[in-house]
Amino acid sequence: MKQATFETIAGLLKARSGLMVSADKDYLLRSRLEPVARAHGLSGLDALADRLHALPGGTLADRVIEAMTTNESLFFRDRRPFEHLAGAITRMAAARPPGRALRIWSAAASSGQEAYSIAMVVADLAHILGERRVDILGSDIAAGQIARAREGLYTGFEVQRGLPPAMLDRHFRREGLNWRISGAMRARVTFCVFNLLDDPRPLGCFDIIFCRNVLIYFDAPTKARVLGALRQVIAPDGLLYLGGAETVIGLGDGFVPVADEPGAYAAVPNPAATFPALITAG
Q1: With 70 as the cut, is the pLDDT of residue 268 above it?
Q2: Domain total for the chain?
Q3: Which partner for 248 in 15, 129, 236, 255 could form a disulfide, CB atoms 3.0-4.6 Å apart?
């Protein structure tokens, strides 16, 4: 692969999605992007880079970003955050005025397993929540993954990864070799395409945000910008959940670790930092 080809593709990924690709990962570019090039009638990555250079904001660029996005997801991933979530929802519901909905955002929701896991936790708390509504938003940069999430259809392998058998029996029905999550669970979640490098304020304010296993793909300045933006749309007593290999330490003053709860971070009521300069896609 030509150096100019690598730089064009890596530069587009960084600018449009925040994804960092090092020079030693050219094999990853080849394995994921050569099929994209062929699908668009291009001879290879050099031709793909030339087209991207000419049309950096076109449909082809969207396909490249989607192909390079890691879409690993499973139900109740790592389990502990969801156990902690149940207690957090209970505490927040008790602290909120009657009739005020709780809002939860599953950022980088991929094919929907995380958002639906949250929905199943909420369903189990119906006896506590009563009439209080819990709105769940799932978002991802990849339109194809969001389409899958809305459909709510999963393979036998996917439902075996982290989903308790009781949950499978209660919330899914079999369709051939696959399993579809119930209409009641799908109705609890709204999905949309959203780039975490864009300004999230039009999405509204959230009580709880899941942004797990996303920041590991960003460099430190991009992590800080994303965390600063998330702080702008989370309640003063809100909670942020990150992946086990992620942290907020050294990345601003908007969140602090929750004691004895790895991966959970409490919003700082009055962070000193101003709203960060966001990277704008496109």
Answers
A1: yes
A2: 2
A3: 255
